[in-house]
Amino acid sequence: MTTQITPISSEKFKSVPQTSWMHRLPAFIILLVCGIAVIILGSNYFDILPTNKNLTYNLIVSAACLVATLWLRGNARLNRFWRIAFTFFVASAAYPITLLFSSWSYIVLGWFHVTTGVSQGIAIAKVYEAVLVVVPILVLTKLSGADLGSIYLKRGNLKLGLSIGALVGLNFAASAFLFFATRYTSMENLSAAIVWGLAFSLANGFMEELWLRGIFLKRFEPVLGIGGSVLVSSIIFALWHGGATYLTPIAIPFMVVNTFTLGLACGYLIMKTDSIWGAVLIHAASDLFLFLAILANA
User: Fold this and answer.
1) What are the distances in angstroms from CA 108 to CA 55, 99, 100, 216?
2) C-alpha torsion sign, points 62, 68, 71, 74
3) 163 in any annotated domain
4) Residue-wise pLDDT tens digits, 239-255
5) Rounded to whole angstroms, how far apart are CA atoms 264 and 144?
6) What's the pTM?
7) How many domains does the chain have?
8) Contact at 8 Å (CB) between 146 and 2?
9) Domain that holds residue 184
10) In 3D, which of 56, 40, 45, 135 has the Cα closest to residue 96?
């Protein structure tokens, strides 16, 4: 049965019973711990913990989330929570899939005769990674009986979302050119960095917004409220970026603060506009700034 998703509005917010933070705190802690177990401990992006880049751990977590989904769905008293468990299963599935198929990226790069040592190769590898993450999310969402609107893949208030996203994008782009354009040795290198930086940033922005926010926010909102949903997803998002291997250790705390505030802004915009697209543009703008900065200092 397809889940019917209605647009978020101020009238809907007023009709939702208000629950104190003390009553929501246990659910907040449980969802945060589950998010850390799935997203942080299972991460393939860094190798800090024994569970990172560990196929066995990822398969066990995915299996546990699937078992919890089936149990909750069959439990008359707790049935309303099964989609939350299923969402964790969807999020966890990305890790074993990317582990199993990540080596194929070299084949894809070979088709274009490039490596990840150049901007084109970095962008192509990211697009390939995004496909590995996004396609299973879309397929599993549809198999669950939910429509894509349940993960914010719809128009919503598209005008507001794209307007804010475009303004932030222009600001980040102007700042990147202001600080880093003169560090490129030629206009050809700068042009390549811009073109492939846009490809990288849009692919990564869409993948991370869908994976780390889009699939969670609507599921968390009934038990945590709007603020709690955005906050827990932002904490997980920030901790996830705390393991960034392309930064020096002294920069990690600033990355955590940067991604935490970015998560709050993008999460709020998604729920405000009932659509993912404005947040994707903001996220992509942030990534483009970082892309140009790193290549400028390479």
Assistant:
1) 23, 16, 15, 31
2) negative
3) yes
4) 999 988 777 889 899 99
5) 28
6) 0.92
7) 1
8) yes
9) 21-296
10) 56
